[in-house]
Design a protein that fits this description.
single chain, 270 residues, mainly alpha, globular
Length: 270
């Protein structure tokens, strides 16, 4: 059965995936659909694929609408008001941590090995986030075989990152060197480039979802610890710095509080 609210949930995920440093997986957790998202992607290749199709169609439609319609707005916000925009996302990300700690019952369940996994998750995000992107501004227009392999592989890696809260698929595209190419392809409706990256994204979603589903079913507390580490580490990656003027500090604190409040409310409703 189609739930049209999933279009808006998909739009929230799609909008976040456009921003380097912000993870669509984090937004899925905030919306309370992360488990359903993973199970649906994993189940699309099973006999029960029809059961998952309505959810994936509506969610995917929302993501596509957001990427096409909101990419220019988000690009403008990041260009004109970068610090308040990023502080809103920091609030969102920070607001998810109490929800995750409660869901995992961390106070009772976390032992030494879980703390170690949490730290490992944070370190992974920090290493990826503070690596030097190889993007030189060049947009790929000539689809040679090496470029086609690069775009397809980038789609696989980016989608794998999108599945995990805390790891940004768009930032991974930036690190690989194809972020500008992907954004330009969406803006200009460059179908061959979109198809290559999209095919990689689809394959990455399916295989990564199966691995995550297996780990969540087999080692749920360990996976929660890892996910909390990923989310915590992303706070430092998204932080844009802060211009020490009274007006900017006030605006950033307002957007930070707005993001945190939104995350807490979403966590309660989910």
């Amino acid at each position: 059965m189609f739930d049209w609210r999933n279009i808006f949930r998909g739009m929230a995920m799609g909008a976040s995936d456009v921003v380097p440093g912000v993870s669509g997986g984090t937004i899925a957790v905030l919306l309370g659909i992360y488990d359903q998202f993973i199970n649906a992607l994993s189940g699309i290749t099973t006999r029960e694929w029809k059961k998952h199709l309505p959810f994936l169609i509506t969610l995917g439609a929302g993501m596509g609408i957001a990427i096409i319609a909101l990419s220019n707005l988000i690009e403008w916000l990041l260009e004109v008001h970068p610090q308040p925009t990023y502080f809103f996302f920091i609030g969102l990300i920070g607001g998810i941590l109490p929800y995750l700690l409660k869901e995992s019952n961390a106070k009772e369940n976390f032992k030494g090995k879980h703390i170690a996994m949490l730290v490992a998750g944070a370190v992974i995000v920090l290493i990826i986030g503070f690596s030097n992107p190889s993007e030189d501004g060049a947009i790929i227009t000539n689809l040679t075989v090496p470029n086609m392999v690069l775009l397809f592989g980038a789609g696989i890696l980016a989608s794998s990152a999108m599945m995990l809260p805390g790891i940004s698929g768009s930032f991974l595209l930036l690190v690989i060197g194809v972020y500008n190419t992907a954004i330009a392809a969406v803006s200009n409706f460059n179908i061959p480039v979109i198809a290559l990256i999209g095919a990689g994204v689809a394959i990455g979603f399916i295989f990564t979802s199966k691995l995550i589903r297996y780990m969540l079913n087999r080692y749920p507390v360990m996976m929660y610890a890892f996910i909390i580490g990923l989310v915590f580490g992303s706070l430092f990656v998204v932080y844009p710095g802060l211009a020490l003027t009274a007006g900017n500090i006030i605006i950033c604190m307002i957007t930070l509080a707005a993001g945190f409040f939104a995350a807490v409310m979403l966590g309660r409703s989910s």
